[in-house]
């Protein structure tokens, strides 16, 4: 790879490539992707594969069934086996299956466990194949699309690059399926509102993601210092170009100064389980001396959360200040708030600050975090 000095990459493959006609898995489009993965490994580049498609792969086994939620979960259970078997047949080295829900990523201990598992598999020459566990996930626990999941996993794996396969050649200034004069953006240096405005809806009736989720994924990945590509996964030319060190679609350039690892996880992977509302004149520097956040500043608490969960700290006027790991449960913080700025209570309840400096990610309101 002349231009790309990758040591580890994540490649995301969607349902439309796995089961394009909803009649089970097809290797028609997967063969060129598998060849790309093999070539990367030959060149010493480690690969992590994020593969959607379990529901699409299993749909043909439930002909005539109404696609209710339980039926879709059953499709995912049956299709996941077929999908893994299809991938396994395309490689002459071992593969491993990892199924996740968002709960596995937003919990710090489980997130570290996922990181360690990926590292261990790669160190033994095994290809990790990851997917959201659609069989057991719920609205509360799901990521929802594998574009964003792939970005979270690229950060967890400390990848150099994220390659997202699409049904178009990259990001266009307008939908190329409906506008003949659409122009592709070969390079994006900063993801702005104008970039998001170029994203239309999903063009495939098989997958769940559209261009917007791919841009969201690119924003997550580039903020971690990960070079991100959107390429056409339906043509072998895309992968040949990448192997030659050429941009095969749209490249999103990584941040010059990536977020610190724990800040990135708090901002882009962990999900706030509740909110702590403080006074409008609260001006403590949360990143420098968060111990200033005491029960005296808490006006109210929203949501139910436990010690160690991520919370949103915001002002009463709605201004978002930070995502942070809570050192107290919502029940106890509500008790503090109800005391109307009295002292937090007996010493056994106030052994430390409400949030800790090392577990805070400040939010930039201008970017809509």
From TrEMBL:
Per UniProt, where does substrate bind?
52, 134, 146
Q: What is its EC number?
A: 2.7.2.11
Q: Which InterPro entries match?
A: AceGlu_kinase-like_sf, Asp/Glu/Uridylate_kinase, G5K_ProB, Glu/AcGlu_kinase, Glu_5kinase, Glu_5kinase/COase_Synthase, Glutamate_5-kinase_CS, PUA-like_sf
Say which domain of life the source belongs to.
Bacteria
Per the record, the coiled-coil ranges are: none
Q: For this UniProt entry, what is the primary localization, expressed as one broad class?
A: cytoplasm
* Enzyme class of the recorded protein, top EC level: transferase
Q: Name the PROSITE patterns for this protein.
A: GLUTAMATE_5_KINASE (PS00902), PUA (PS50890)
Report the catalytic activity. Answer: L-glutamate + ATP = L-glutamyl 5-phosphate + ADP
Subcellular location as annotated: Cytoplasm
UniProt keyword list: Amino-acid biosynthesis, ATP-binding, Cytoplasm, Kinase, Nucleotide-binding, Proline biosynthesis, Transferase
User: Pfam families given for it?
Assistant: AA_kinase
* Amino acids binding ATP: 12, 166-167, 208-214
Alphabetized GO MF terms: glutamate 5-kinase activity
- Respond yes or no to whether keyword Nucleotidyltransferase is given for this record: no
- Annotated ranges, domain Aspartate/glutamate/uridylate kinase: 7-232
| Function noted in UniProt | Catalyzes the transfer of a phosphate group to glutamate to form L-glutamate 5-phosphate.
Family to which the UniProt record says this protein belongs: Belongs to the glutamate 5-kinase family.
The name on file for this protein is: Glutamate 5-kinase
What organism is the protein native to? Paraglaciecola aquimarina
């Amino acid at each position: 790879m002349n231009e790309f000095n990758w040591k580890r990459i994540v490649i995301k493959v969607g349902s439309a490539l796995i089961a394009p006609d909803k009649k089970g898995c097809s290797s028609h489009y997967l063969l060129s992707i598998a060849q790309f993965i093999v070539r990367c490994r030959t060149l010493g580049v480690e690969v992590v594969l994020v593969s959607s498609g379990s529901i699409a792969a299993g749909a043909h086994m439930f002909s005539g069934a109404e696609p209710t939620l339980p039926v879709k979960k059953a499709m995912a259970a049956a299709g996941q086996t077929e999908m893994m078997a299809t991938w396994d047949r395309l490689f002459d080295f071992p593969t491993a299956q990892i199924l996740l829900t968002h709960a596995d990523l937003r919990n710090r201990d489980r997130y570290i466990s996922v990181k360690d598992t990926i590292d261990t598999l790669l160190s033994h020459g095994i290809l990790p194949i990851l997917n959201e566990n659609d069989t057991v996930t719920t609205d509360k626990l799901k990521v929802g699309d594998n574009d964003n999941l792939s970005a979270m996993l690229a950060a967890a794996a400390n990848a150099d690059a994220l390659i997202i396969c699409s049904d178009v050649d990259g990001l266009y200034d307008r939908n190329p399926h409906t506008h003949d004069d659409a122009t592709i953006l070969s390079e994006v240096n900063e993801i702005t509102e104008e970039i998001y405005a170029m994203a239309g809806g999903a063009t495939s009736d098989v997958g769940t993601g559209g261009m917007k989720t791919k841009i969201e994924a690119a924003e997550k990945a580039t903020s971690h210092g990960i070079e991100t590509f959107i390429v056409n996964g339906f043509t072998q030319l895309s992968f040949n170009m990448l192997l030659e060190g050429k941009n095969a679609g749209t490249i999103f350039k990584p941040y010059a100064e990536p977020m610190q690892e724990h800040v990135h996880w708090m901002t882009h992977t962990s999900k706030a389980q509740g909110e702590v509302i403080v006074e409008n004149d609260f001006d403590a520097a949360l990143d420098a001396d968060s111990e200033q956040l005491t029960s005296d500043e808490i006006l109210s608490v929203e949501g139910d959360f436990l010690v160690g969960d991520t919370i949103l700290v915001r002002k009463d006027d709605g201004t978002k200040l930070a995502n942070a790991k809570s050192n107290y449960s919502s029940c106890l913080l509500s008790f503090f708030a109800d005391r109307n700025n009295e002292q937090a209570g007996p010493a056994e309840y106030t052994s430390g600050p409400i949030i800790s400096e090392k577990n805070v990610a400040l939010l930039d309101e201008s970017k809509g975090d």
